[in-house]
Design a protein that fits this description.
By secondary structure, the protein is an alpha+beta fold. 25% of the residues lie in helices and 28% in strands. Helix 4 packs across helix 5 and helix 5 packs antiparallel against helix 8 (378-393).
Length: 806
């Protein structure tokens, strides 16, 4: 909410430096995001009067203007604006002036003709495109009211004001109006704001003879009031009103629309004006939209309505407005408008928010209805707008207002004790100090029994309901910086990580030590990416009811798609050698379950080179075994009782069918590892990539064994090598299992050091060579013992795997 400093001064005697005021407001609970000085950095910009104009001899769109800038001689200025004309009072940047963007304007020649400065648009002196009146959006600005030629333009355009940008929290929507902001600032300086009154003169007939209204769902529309206005003269608003609007960030349109916006900024109460002559009847109905009903709103977008939306209709049952958000194009105020119906209402905040989000249509009105409005100002704002229309649109107003649904503003009375306040805040405030704070806030007080204060909170502060709210008001008005500081007197409990937190941190340390960098991806993604790389086919997707974007509508069921997004982002920026991991949650939802589960996963991905070439080593590209080694080493640190088993699989459509394996601990499935399918890699626009994904929740629940340290062996180890010819579909895991099972108690290590297929090896077979290490910690092993064990191993390899010993 942009707060005009000069506007505040209309309500309270304020002489504080705006920067000091901004700091004070921030320290009382409403952050001031910035203090804006519209004329800062601008100089030598004055009002000019165009006395004469002639076409440029060498251009079909430039004109040579003779402009009076308050000096003895006119300035010759070349201007290309389509709306420039003799007799206009315009904005002139003189030679050596500064306009927006710190741009310096110099004397120059434009196609051979000297130009002494520049005739400016509002945008060129710093106005946002969003607030420039449409008739001047594509040209220079022309003053519509008397101005002094040669005088600086800043006072005429409201640029000599100072704007405080209040960053208002949802609970302080009372300051979304200038009256609420004045109460807030006035309380800081012990000044009660004084608001001007708009005396309304009603000269028409009774509104009941011209208009009727029905509200079908009174829970969604707690209050609804209408006024009928006749003989409106549509014209631009007076300059003071336009400057207040654009300083508040709102574009001036015409006097009728501008007055409704001005009243909204003043009271925080949104209003809407309908062209009465465009309605098909004088009966207004406020109802919920029907199925497949549509409405073209003022932004010229035809919207498909939901039955949860609230609409305003006439007897034709055609919607004429989306209640609380935006009016319909059908009933728009335009140059032919003479009769107006003014609406002031309260709509259910939750319903308005859902409609605004569903339609992707957030407006100043919807923002205020979502957060709440002052119920005591609904009729006052309606009457103020009618009075302004009488004054600035030469209108006449019917007698009375029409009530579709009435609301009775209710003050809230909250009892609180002085010692309770001091106990919570740790202060020693007196009763007089507390009562003064309440009075400055505009709250009524009554003291009983010497310490019990009954505080009456007016409806304009609908955020205050309980004792704690009153304590907060005292604390922020007294000053948070003045509250005593002390440590809490509570028993200290040493903190530590729970087993799950320790387990997760251990996993991160292991992957980081293996050279992987941690990344964090969005838990929300698209439907396709959410369902890729699933480790179970039974889980259902969870879709958000109100996603911020279509790309973030579903809760993920995997971490791998997020890693591939991260790889794609880096590859697009020429970073091709990557090793990353993510630890996070996925959200599987079993059938018939309303809410998803939250399961801890761990996933990693590598692509590109794992070893760059140098004088000693050649380059090494990432492959299946690189990543498998990382995963195996991590699982080894868990000291699980059951063995880690890798089983080839082709059940993942997103993975390479010949380079993918499921990971089991014993018979329990815990994850997978392999190469991303080339087609999927192409979709992500990445190179050959290998990934793994583990279910940490399952791993945490698995039994493990204690790791017992052993003394260094006193006796030497003995190594034996064997080479086998086996069918090519025989795996290393099968051979390793047979050797371990039959190797005896002294077998310490098995290492595969060669795999060969080719010359001297029959087709369909391969040669695999192993180094076996034996060691007895109590004695030196003899040849007889080792040979006996080797014989056992070889016999079983022959019988169980049909191996041939080379």
């Amino acid at each position: 909410m942009k707060i005009s400093y000069k506007w505040l001064q209309d309500y309270i005697p304020l002489s504080e430096d705006p920067d000091v005021l901004a700091d004070k407001v921030s320290r009382t609970g409403i952050e001031v995001a910035s203090v804006i000085r519209p004329e800062a950095g601008l100089k030598k910009i004055v009002v000019g009067h165009i006395n004469a104009m002639a076409p440029h001899p060498d251009s079909d769109h430039l004109n040579i203007c003779q402009v009076d800038v308050g000096e003895a001689k006119d300035y010759q200025i070349v201007c290309g604006a389509p709306n420039v004309a003799p007799g206009q009072n315009v904005i002139v940047a003189l030679p050596n002036s500064r306009i927006a963007g710190n741009t310096k304007i110099k004397k120059s020649k434009m196609r051979g003709v000297q130009s002494m400065g520049m005739i400016c648009s509002l945008q060129e002196i710093g106005f946002s495109e969003n607030v420039v009146p449409k008739e001047f959006a594509n040209g220079i600005y022309v003053f519509q009211e008397p101005v002094t030629v040669g005088a600086p333009v800043f006072k005429y355009l409201g640029m000599d004001d100072i704007i405080l940008d209040f960053d208002i929290t949802p609970n302080r929507a009372d300051t979304l109006g200038m009256h609420g902001a004045a109460w807030e600032v006035g309380a800081m300086y012990a000044e009660k704001p004084k608001f001007e009154t708009n005396d309304l003169v009603e000269t028409g007939q009774s509104i009941a003879n011209e208009l009727s209204v029905d509200v079908t769902n009174k829970n969604l529309v707690p209050a609804y009031y209408l006024r009928r206005i006749h003989n409106v003269k549509l014209q631009p608003s007076p300059m003071w009103l336009q400057t207040r609007l654009w300083n508040a960030g709102i574009r001036p349109i015409n006097n009728v629309v501008d007055i409704t916006n001005y009243v909204m900024i003043t009271y925080g109460q949104p209003l809407h004006a309908f062209d009465a002559n465009k309605l098909t009847s004088d009966h207004i109905v406020v109802r919920q939209a029907q199925k497949k009903e549509t409405l073209e709103t003022l932004d010229e977008v035809t919207r498909q309505l939901s039955t949860d939306d609230i609409v305003i209709t006439d007897d034709s049952q055609t919607p004429i407005a989306l209640a609380g958000i935006m009016g319909g194009k059908q009933s728009e105020i335009d140059g032919n408008t003479t009769d107006v119906i003014l609406e002031s209402a309260v709509f259910d905040g939750a319903a308005i928010r859902k409609t605004a989000q569903r339609q992707n249509l957030r407006t100043d009105a919807s923002t205020r209805f979502e957060k709440g409005v002052d119920t005591s100002a609904i009729i006052e704002a309606l009457n103020a707008a009618a009075a302004l229309l009488v004054k600035y649109a030469a209108a006449t107003v019917d007698q009375g207002y029409l009530t579709g649904q009435a609301i009775k503003p209710q003050a809230v009375t909250i009892p609180i004790k002085l010692d309770r306040i001091n106990h919570i805040l740790g202060t020693s405030l007196t009763l007089d100090q507390v009562i003064e704070i309440f009075h400055n806030l505009g709250f009524g007080t009554a003291v009983t029994d010497g310490e019990l204060i009954k505080v009456t909170v007016p409806p304009r502060r609908w955020d205050i309901h309980i004792e704690a709210d009153l304590v907060e008001e005292i604390a922020r008005m007294y000053g948070y910086d003045r509250l005593p500081v002390s440590l809490p007197k509570v028993a200290m409990t040493p903190g530590e990580f729970n087993p799950q937190q320790k387990f997760i941190r251990h996993a991160k340390r292991q992957l980081q030590s293996a050279g992987l960098s941690e990344v964090i991806s969005y838990a929300l993604t698209t439907e396709v990416k959410a369902t890729q790389f699933k480790m179970t086919q039974l889980d259902q997707l969870t879709k958000l009811n109100w996603p911020m974007t279509e790309d973030h509508a579903y809760l993920r069921l995997n971490l791998v798609s997020g890693l591939l997004n991260d790889i794609a982002y880096n590859v697009a920026r020429k970073q091709t050698d990557l090793a990353i991991y993510e630890q996070g949650r996925v959200f599987p939802k079993p059938e018939q379950q309303v809410r998803p589960n939250e399961v801890e996963y761990l996933a990693g991905a590598i692509t590109g080179l794992t070893q760059s070439p140098n004088w000693l080593e050649p380059k090494q590209a990432a492959d299946f075994y690189t990543l498998k080694g990382i995963v195996t080493n991590y699982l080894a640190t868990l000291a699980l009782k059951d063995a880690v088993v890798y089983r080839a699989t082709d059940r993942y459509s997103e993975m390479h069918p010949g380079r993918t394996a499921d990971i089991y601990i014993g018979d329990q499935f815990v994850g997978f590892i392999g190469q991303v399918h080339p087609l999927i890699a192409k979709q992500y626009d990445i190179h050959e990539t290998y990934v793994f994904q583990l279910d940490l929740t399952k791993l945490l629940e698995m039994p493990n064994q204690r790791i017992v340290s052993q003394p260094a062996p006193k006796y030497p180890a003995v190594s034996r090598d064997i080479a086998l010819v086996v069918p090519e579909n025989t795996t290393n895991a099968q051979i390793d299992a047979v050797i371990r099972r039959r190797g005896g108690q002294y077998l310490q290590r098995i290492k595969l050091f060669d795999v060969y297929q080719g010359k001297n090896i029959a087709t369909g077979y391969k040669s695999m060579a192993y180094s076996l290490q034996f060691q007895n910690p109590e004695d030196t092993l003899t040849e007889g013992v080792i040979n006996e064990q080797m014989t056992h191993i070889l016999d079983y390899l022959k019988s169980e795997l049909n191996a041939e010993i080379r």
